[in-house]
Amino acid sequence: MALRFRKTITLAPGIRMNLSGSGASFSFGGRGASVTVGNRGTFLNTGIPGTGISTRRKLGDPSRSSSSAASGKRIVNMEVTAGITDEGTLYFKDQQGYPLDEKTIARVKKQKGDLVKGLMQQKCDEINREIEALGEIHLVTPAPEVRPTFELQEFPELIPEQPTPKTLGFFASLFRGKRDKLAEENRQSSNRYLDELQGWQNRKEEFSREQQRRKQFIENELYTSVAAKSSYLDELLRRMAWPRETIVSTELRDNGTRVYIDVDLPELEDMPHRTVTVPQRGYKLSVKEMSLSQLLRLYMSHVHGIGFRLIGEIFSALQDSSEVVLSAYTQRNNPASGMAQDDYLYSVRVKREQWSGINFQNLNNIDVVESLTRFQLRRNMSKTGVFTAIQPFDITAVLEGDAHKFISFLFGVLKTSS
Questions:
Q1: What is the dihedral of CA 170, 175, 181, 186, to 10 degrees?
Q2: Rounded to whole angstroms, how far apart are CA atoms 321 and 311?
Q3: Cα(307)–Cα(371) distance, rounded to whole angstroms?
Q4: Is there a contact between 13 and 72 (Cβ–Cβ < 8 Å)?
Q5: What is the DSSP letter of 22?
Q6: Residue 321 · residue 258 · CB < 8 Å
Q7: What CA–CA distance (Å, rounded) separates 324 from 313?
Q8: Would you call 305 helix, strand, or coil by DSSP?
Q9: Which pLDDT score, from 0 to 100, does residue 390 have?
Q10: Is the pLDDT of residue 247 over 90?
Q11: Less CB within 10 Å around the terminal CB: N or C of the chain?
């Protein structure tokens, strides 16, 4: 079972600008309500989406000079998307995705510089926060006693509304043709309603049956069926979001009590290597390269955090699982052949009772790189975060090792009894 996870972070939220010969105004907010700030003042725009009904109320006044300068000027409404390139340069595009001309951009920067700076700061925070998140994947790991629960869902569709029969005025009701025509319209409307109601009831009943199937799956099958455990684990892993592409293969043994995981980690080269800040002057972000030691520390936290999180999710999802064996590898170049090869960076064998010894209420104070040393760990890593490939635990060796221990124990019992 090979699963891919991908999360795309969009760093270009849309804003609305009204451009005129004298200035620019910005509108913030989604459908139904927004605030416009410009030379004519600050306005609250409200409306009911899809109806065409809207209102506009003034919240503040601009300066007298701005009002007089803006009077009589034609305002052009357009959608503008702002973003930042990898080099830290701010860019603007129109609703068709074409770059704005330099004259328009210069006007926006000159007249609405504070708003542009605010946007730049927002982008900076997003970029830097994404980098920090790479080393904090483990912070949302569930405790092993947090078991899957079924939550009853409400049927999302509203019941169809019964139509009100149409009626004729006094004079129109004197004509039989009009009466017959209206009766036919009411009959057709009633039939449509009955069809819609029947369809709604059928969908609601199927939804209710699906809810019962889900309840049975979560509360019973998940503890008795290996197929259900595998299906739920697949579902769980697909729901999880990762800041970098991560590929996971799983195998369940011994009625699902033992779980084996292989994780294809991101490569070091895929890690972000620059932080950004907003300059005091100008409209280009200051980009700073991370040092090699900073990058290696981030990578160490990231790859160990992935393993920690996966182990925790499995112990929580499969409550009768007693052991998880996780091996993490990455693709690296073989200097002898020049070909890419899979190098295992670490392999860890964790038993549930050991995992329960972690304080999951205080994960902020856990060193995720060192946390796996509590268990059977194969890892050859320098203090600075340079990994040397290792031989991982494999399923056959683990099973044979346990069988050997059992035979040794049995032999010890026999020897004692004799």
A1: 30
A2: 11
A3: 11
A4: no
A5: S
A6: yes
A7: 11
A8: helix
A9: 94
A10: no
A11: C
Confidence (pLDDT) at 15:
38
Query: pTM of the predicted model, to two decimals?
Result: 0.67
Q: Which long-range contacts (CB under 8 A, 24 or more apart) does 370-373 make?
A: 371/138, 371/304, 371/308, 372/304, 372/307, 372/308, 372/346, 372/348
Average pLDDT over every residue of 197-204: 97
If you count DSSP H runs as helices and E runs as strands, how many of each does the chain have, helices first? 9, 16
Amino acid at residue number 93: K
Annotated domain spans of the chain: 2-111, 227-417
Do residues 116 and 283 lie in contact, with contact meaning Cβ atoms separated by under 8 Å?
yes
Q: In the Cβ-directed half-sphere of 102, how many Cα atoms lie within 13 Å?
A: 0
Give the H/E segment covering residue 226.
Answer: helix 226-239
The strands making up 387-388's β-sheet, listed across from edge to edge, are 2-5, 246-253, 258-264, 323-333, 340-351, 376-381, 387-388
Question: Among 315, 404, 327, which Cα is nearest to 351's?
Answer: 315
Q: For the chain, what is the mean pLDDT?
A: 78
Residues 291-302: tens digit of each pLDDT: 999 999 999 999
First-last CA distance in the chain: 49
Could you identify the residue written with the tokens 């699902």? 256
